[in-house]
Amino acid sequence: MTWEGDLYSRLVAWMKIILPLAALALLSTLFLISRTVDPTQKPPIAQVDLEQRAHDQGVTNPSFAGITSGGDEVVFKAARARPDLDDPDRLIADEVVAEIRLYTGVVIDISADHADMHQGNYTASMDGNVTIQTTTGYLIHTDAVDTRYDRLYAETPGSVTGSGPIGDIAAGKMRLTFDEASQDAELLFTDGVKLIYKPNKPKE
Fold first, then answer.
1. Mean pLDDT by 10 residues, the chain (204 residues)
2. Region for 128 from its dihedrals, namely left if φ exceeds 0, alpha if ψ lies in -120 to 50, beta otherwise
């Protein structure tokens, strides 16, 4: 019992010496590998271009809705939109979708990469991978289209290609308007229209 007691006492005594030394060594290592901090130096702050932030001010996922004079509903949605600092009535939007719901039940969807909207003129010029799709079976592709949100109107300044219930279509221009005579939407293809007629196959 005396031998075991002496061993225990010696072990405790050595631990009292070794443990503080080990702790001191660890602290010294931490101070050596850590970088020197100047207490008089200001904390790092991210450099922000305030002018660019002001120029890029805008909102994400905005939507605009209205009713045309003919009772059709027009809804514009975008991934991003920002105001023009030089013209408060002008709005620039990206990844835009315009949904036109006619009172007759027909739905026309127009999507584009960009849109230039003017509140004072009730106009929206859409460009970049423009796609026009209707629930009546038309699918049109073009580079740009000019639309309005106070009345039913959409017209392409350039050529279009696509398909419809009667076949494949290529034309120099396309225009969507409201026909007073029929009191319905009218889709017109002009300037060198080419149609590849594909009649519907009879059902078996």
1. 52 60 57 50 46 61 82 89 86 92 90 92 92 93 92 92 93 89 84 85 49
2. left
Identity of residue 119: Q
CB-CB contact of 198 with 166 (8 Å): yes
pLDDT digits (tens, 9 = 90+) for 168-181: 999 999 999 888 77
The whole-model pTM stands at 0.68
Residue recorded with tokens 């030394």? 21
Sequence-separated (6 or more) residues with CB below 8 Å from residue 143 = 127, 128, 130, 156, 158
